[in-house]
Structure formats: structure tokens, C-alpha cells
Amino acid sequence: MTGIVITKTSPLLSDSEKRATIIDSKTNFGVEGLTYGLMGGYYTYAEINAQLDSMKARFPNLITSKMNIGTSIEGRVIYAVKISDNPDATENEARALYTSLTHAREPGGMMTVMYYMFYLLENYNSNPAVKYLVDNREIYFIPCVNPDGYEYNRTTNPNGGGQFRKNRRNNGSSYGVDLNRNFGPMAYWNAAGGGSSTTPSDLDYRGTAPFSEPEAIVVKNFLAGKNFKTALNYHTYSNLLIFPYGCLPYLTPDSTTFLEFAGDMTAMNGYSPGTASQLLYPVRGGFDDYYYDGEPEANGKIFAMTPECGGDADGFWPPQSRIFPIAQENLNPNIYYTWSSR
Ligand SMILES: [Zn+2]
């Protein structure tokens, strides 16, 4: 969300409190891989990439090496991985996608996505349902869609709390295009009824044209030909689950199906389901609409949705004590949506 910035002092957890949280996670969710990162508890871009390497080292038969899928406007690599049995082979299995950090100040989504990755990897051998899922799906992840914006926040606020949202496009008198307003096709990017700004300094500036930004093109090219069935593009915050269309005409031919998926998922965590215009404000040029039917010849039809994870009191950089609970309340919805990919 574009959101009100909540400034507050976030109490840091002690080392023993962090250990207790991870022990609790292991006991109740079978996850001990997620730790606390250097940036207020959140992983930095470098730490995300190191974690992907570590996952590959620990679980070489369940995850690919991190794949360079393209570079940002400042030249940073955007990485994706796939979790599946025979991860380096392309198998005839339905595909699901999870992304995060499209907006650079929303790291709670990334920690939630990384938690789900560890859940799949660490429970494969002990949990038959997880084994079935990993054996019968190809589950892709792009944990940091916007590395430049995220690194910019690290340079201004190395302990977390940076409030930069967009990519690092130099607009002349301001920086940044909102990547979640930069997707085509033109009919969505420029939809009547609004949902993005034409003013470069605005938080929701859409850029000069659909796919004017390299990060958006990287995602577009990554999707092409993969025939993803479901996708969750994680953002923060407001405890919502948002589905297409973000812009006019709001209703899709599959709105009933979306509402069924979202209704099931939000029953698990108490979030509110609906379209962006119902829950927040119109969004045009967003990921989800493009995924859903923006380019059917390349992508088919992807049932893409946006969780806005974390509550209003959490804001963009929830305190450390909230990282695991937010990830855990989204675990069952994440599992459900991988199941639904078929
Ligand atoms: Zn966002």
C-alpha cells in the first residue's frame, strides 16, 4: 500500500528471545532456517542471496542454485529459485510463483516468503503433505524484485526503517518509478478511473510507458512461457488479500473463483479479501492484472493475488517480535495456494 508512514521505536529482541522464537518455530512449524537479519531483523539484499546459497547447499536435491533472471536499473542482479523434486529438470508439473520486495520498504513480505521456502525444504523428509507438494509442483520464488530500492534503504537506514518505495530511476528532480504501476498492457497501465500517478515525485508514479522499467521487464520475461497457475505477490501492510482487477472494470470473468480462493485463504488468517478498489484504492498497471490476463499468449491465465501482510500497527518495518508471527499466519495460505496451482 502507499500508506501512512508510522514512525515508532521498535524494541529489539535479545539474543535469548531470538533463540526462543526459533525454537518455538521449530516446535510448532518445523522451521528453524529463518533467522534474524542485519537490517532491524530483516535480511539485507546480500543476506537474501546468501540464504539462497545456503538453501542450495543444505538441500541440493530440492532447490535450484539461484538464477540470474536479469538486472535492475543500477545493475544489481534479480534472482529467482525453484523448489521442486528434480529442481534442475523441467517437469510436467503445475507452477506457482511467490514474489516480494517489489516495494523496497516492505520487507515483511520477503521474510514471509523466505519462511515458506524453509518450511518446504525443512519438512520435505518428515511431512508427507509437504513431500507431495514439492514432488508435484514447481514452486518459484523471486524474493527481491527491487534490489536497488532495498539497498537504498539500507544505505539511509542500515538498521531498518528506510521509507523508500520505488525503484531508483532518475526522473530528473526525483527518483523512482512504482514498479507495481509500471506493467502493461496499455489498457491497464492507462485505465480510466485512475490508480497511479503521472507525477514523477509521487509514491505511485507509473513511469513514462508500460514496462519502461528494467525490473518490470525482468518479471515479464521471467513469466513468459512458464504457464504459472497461481502467484502471490507479497506486499505490506493492512492484513488484506487483494485480487484482480486493480483498475476498471474491477470485476473479472473469474471474480467468483478469485473470491473462493481468497475466502478460503483469509479464513486461515483473518485477513480481508477483495479487490484493491474495494479494500484500499484503485491500482492500475499492477503485477496481478498483467499476470492474470495481460498477455495470455505468453502467460496463459495466472491467478495472481497480493497479500498485504501485517496489520496497521505493524507498518512497513514491524518490530522484530512480529517477523515470525506474520510469516506464520501466512504459512497455510501459502501452502493452500501452491496446492491450488494445477
Ligand atoms: Zn507494496
Q: Termini distance?
A: 30 Å
Report the biggest beta sheet as strand number plus sense, adding barrel if it closes.
8 strands, mixed
Mean pLDDT, nearest integer? 97
Question: Helical stretch count?
Answer: 13
Present as ligands are: zinc ion
Can you count the beta strands?
8
Topology-level CATH name: Aminopeptidase
Percent in helix: 25-40%
Work out the count of structural domains. 1
Could you provide a short overview of the structure?
This protein is α/β, with parallel strands linked by helices.
Structure description:
The protein is of the alpha/beta class. It has one domain (27-339): Zn peptidases (Aminopeptidase, 3-Layer(aba) Sandwich). It is 37% helix and 12% strand. The chain has 13 helices and 8 strands. It has helices at residues 15-29, 45-58, 107-123, 128-136, 147-156, 186-189, 214-223, 255-269, 276-279, 287-294, 296-299, 323-329, 331-339, and strands at residues 67-71, 77-83, 94-99, 137-142, 228-233, 240-242, 272-274, 303-308. An 8-stranded mixed β-sheet has the order 1-2-4-3-5-8-6-7, sandwiched between helices. Strand 6, helix 8 and strand 7 (272-274) form a beta-alpha-beta unit. Helix 3 crosses helix 12 (323-329) and helix 8 runs antiparallel to helix 13 (331-339). The protein is globular and about 50 Å long. The two termini are 30 Å apart. The relative contact order is 0.17. Zinc ion is lined by residues 1, 103, 106, 235.
